[in-house]
Here is the input.
Amino acid sequence: MNKPIDFIGIRLGMWLFLYSEIILFGGMFVLYAAYFHAYPTDFVEGGRQLNRVIGAINTIILLLSSFTVAASITAIRLGSKKLSLSLIGFSFICGIVFLINKYFEWGAKFHHDIYPNSETLINGPPGQNIFFGLYYVITGLHGLHVIIGMTLLAISFVLVASNKIHAERFAMLENSGLYWHLVDLIWIFVFPLFYLVL
Amino acid sequence: MSDVKSFFDTPAPAHLTGIKAWLLTHDHKRLAIMYLWAVMFWFTVAIILGLLIRIELMSIGPTIMGAKLYNSAFTLHGVIMIFLFIIPAIPAIFGNFILPIQLGADDVFFPRLNLLSWYLYMLGGLLAIVSLFTGGGFPDTGWTFYVPFSVTTNHSVPLTLTAAFILGMSSMLTGLNFITTVHRMRVKEMGWMQIPLFTWSLYATGWVQLLATPVISITLLLVIFERAFGIGLFDPDKGGDPVLYQHLFWMYSHPVVYVMILPGMGIISEVIPTFSRKAIFGYKAIVWSSMGIAVAGSLVWAHHMYTSGISDTAVFIFSLLTYLVAIPTAIKVFSWVATLYKASIEMTPPLLYALIFIYLFTVGGLTGLVIGAAGTNIHVHDTQFIVAHFHFTMFGGAGFAFFAGLHFWWPKMFGVMYNIKKAYIAATLITVGFMFHYVPMFVLGMMGMPRRYFDYLPQFAQGNALAGIGGIIMVIGLLLMLYNLVMSLREKVVAPENPWGGVTLEWSVPSPPPVHNFVTAPSVKDYPYDFSEVLKKAAQS
Here is the structure.
């Protein structure tokens, strides 16, 4: 059983998995499309109430972290363990900052009595309720994926530090990186759908 | 042959012993056996539930249970049969066991992921049991979990949904594993058009699993969220649309019927040429029709929703697309029949099941056209006609294909042969019972008896009594079949390497196979169904 490790196969499996994740969010986007069709004005109104600055900052943070993850893979392939570790660490911190921003954003909305089943939403226009319902479900699920991605990055960090991941064997880091890109990609769709809807 | 140690005697990884050698194994064959027993357990439970439902319906008024219990019984029958039996049965048992061997590989691509899938399956089953005894009582929504009822009922729904979610994940990971295995683990000499048809069908199934399962996952999650937070995404009072739930649900659940039937068609495509001693008719057509069903089947979901208030245009388009699925399906049926034509047929239990499959599945498919047409659909929508139709396709189709596979590969999996005569008797009993059980439901449906009703008017009494008797005969047959198979493990009549004269790679390895499957390097034929050597050998003896 000393066959060479088939990295292409491992990557193929990961891509298939990412594909299923996209379909998962695809189901949510179908709901978004249907409800946007039903309540266009309420959705625009809802979009105005979200904080575009924080949204834009979060987008930049995720894009930046996607770059550093990609760079960390290149670093490990070139045998530079220290650089790779610091790049993974940086991406991880980006994830934390993203979640902190999200926490304050959600907190502010809760403060204004906007959360699922709140008085304001129930008594307000139905489109508004749907908009914020979708907002919480989609960004919540996305946040969950950020946490999963951060867990994978943390595991990769430990494996790189203990030399389990090195220039010849980096499939785990590469797959964690792919997952992180997915988290980024989904946010790239979520951001305009909620913050920039006009 | 005795000089080769079977996988039963060789733990993998090698250092494991006793029960751990099973519970922590990476061996696809051991996992297949573990799936087999778990699936069989659930199958038996669901059969008994189904029987209780039909006995309840044998006479007017409460017979053996009340209306509430009846609702739970048909819900559990559906949930178990769909999520714990038909979806995993063929891919997880025979797919795991046979697919790597047919490709000339020693395991699936991700063995540890395979083990994880098994644990997810067991966890899903366990949660399903727990959901029975927690919360407000047995789940009573039907297996479709339609809103608004699934959001408002106080019975234990969230746990059942979580169970279905986890089972979906298990099936999806199995599909992912198979796709990767087919792409990366084939022996070098095997081109795409030399892959055996069973493996081809699992490949197509894998794509459907990947494409469709995430949609049900998100849909079930949404129902859980609705119950937990009251968001109102499907609640008209809060601006939501319950029909959207149906769309999302059927976007998964229609493709998933192809997850159930495609691997079954794969089994039939193996059994028929083997016992015809003849190359299968239209190998490429069968391959492409598998992929065609996978694609077209993903685009027909709204034919479950003709009466839910979707637009006439949508009804027209979905009706048309539904009819298109009939084309690749019919290509398969005609290819099987053409394979049998002028063949030197050897009758065996697997072939008998396969022949019954063709008949029952054709009836199921043709009645599917009655339902797929918008006009007649309105008449029979939500009646017993629908129940009869999908049992003809799912049970008469996928179920009988499963039985065919069970009798076909049993000697390979365990190295023992079952009692052939008892197998014939069981098959006959099941079929006779099946016809008496489901044909009356077609008639009842045309007369207007709704499905899922606890009670009915006097004019439906005769049909229901007949269906009940048929059901009892069928269950006796099923129990005899299971008994016969289990007894073969005790009687230990040794089966040879190739009892049926099969030509795909699994018949070139010992029964049961050794842990790395192949004793000598697998040799791939130019064409997977070339019987010239089998016929030559038969002529010599």
